[in-house]
Structures
1.
Amino acid sequence: MRFQCEGWPFDSARDPQTPNVLSRFSLFVQVQCPCLDIPRAKHFYEALAAAHPKGAYVLLTQFNAIIDMLLALVFYARGDAPALEGHERNLIAKGRYNRGIEVAFNGLLQRKDEGRAALVPEPAHDPYAHAGAGAGAGGGGTKRAIQGPRIMDKRVPVPAGRFQRLDVDADTSIREFVTATGAVFEAGRGFYELSKAEDVSDKKEVVLEHVASGEMFSGTDAKELLGLPSVGGGHVTKKSTPAGYRAYIQSTSYTRKLIRNTTFLYEMA
């Protein structure tokens, strides 16, 4: 399924002369990416999805989850709740499940959000709270204990959508890797996964990702959990990364070598 709209989404309440395109679609499933900073887009797409009983509004924060989410939307459009729940369990088993995907399934399955994949379950700390609600194909779901530890102080949450997560499939320089995706490379916007011993300067940002939830945070907590001082640089190794987390170090280089089978974060402009 593909929907392409040239121009800006409109608000019929503000512009009653604009043709009502909602009546032109018998089925519409919208995947919105936060990096498309279009005014009123969320309201427009939610209204468009609500115009049909099988419409769904899903918030997609990572492009690398699009295949998994498209398959979920196919099951949803078919009204096949057991297949949708089975797909969710399969993603959990394969380690591809996180907080953003959980919120999407909550909306598709019309179930209460229990924050089972959240690092910090309280809504006030949850960047996905109230996101992705929509009509679903059924209820249910299997409980799973994948909640991480609570980190309360000196933690700076990374907003959902700040980074795109990419898998490195071959050793390559950071600049070559970024430009091969079609993005414009800018030093300082890339964060490589910690995979070997190295010195980290105080000027570089450190990000920790809770693997089970997909939530990220930086700040002095991230540094201290890696064994770095809150002020000043230090030495780290792969073993410095806490269990259940991935550690990423900001790169300010044009030639930094990315290692095969690691994960790379690139900050959206």
2.
Amino acid sequence: MNTKAFHTIKCVVSLVAIGASVFHCWATTYTLNVVSSDPNSAVLITASPNDNNGQGSGTTPFSLTYNSGTVVTLSPPGMAGGNDFYQWLQDGATYVCCGSGRPSGSAVGATITVNGNHTMTAVYGGIGVIIVIPLKHAEYQLVV
């Protein structure tokens, strides 16, 4: 996979004397909030690369600061609080859903490009659906 990151910088030009100016530039930074659901706290999640402050992991909830355009991978544990990892949400919307057929206790990392302030939620527990279909004979049921 060929990934291109575009970085945003801000610059201010100051006129210090006639014909002389000074440029002050800095990268635009954004906050990446990392939270969890079911359990709502104390889930250890690894972030790669480390953020601008050298932080590379934390227990939920925690925040990271990155320059615009940084590609970040978040890696959750497969289980937390007795619940299996289910999916990622980005700003409340489904981001990566692991789907059925995944071994119990396995997890999928999320890779995002930091292009604004975002909240990534590691969701545990999932939502199970049981469909009961009565068959012709009352002593049998098909559970899907």
3.
Amino acid sequence: MPELSIPPKCPSCNGPMIVVKLECASCGTEITGEYDLCSVCKLEGETRELFDLFLGSRGNLKKVQRELGVSYPTVRQRISEMFIELGQEPPPADNPLLSAPNCYVTPHLAWATLAARQRLVATIVANLQAFLKRICKVPYLTHT
């Protein structure tokens, strides 16, 4: 199977992409629904390349520095910006976005959209109902 990246934005309108089908490469089992992309999947271009390099270097900034051929402070700044884009680090107090008009900075909660939370609750309820009817579909739960 070819290894392709999931496009984080629609090539036609630039809107956000969602995953609607997952398929097992071994048996062909399909799962359909609406699934949000993880924050890493939404990284593009140089930021995604930096993430892959950072991960491949096991977080060793010196290795990243050598690979990129830039100064250590530059690597730290780029890594910090990457983590901000991933929603893992608050922006510095002097970030111009924090004082921009009509700009609201919120924590990264892409997974917690209303639709995602509703799906989560529906799945939990369905699993509990199946468990109580002893037709458990969750492989690690057993009836005693």
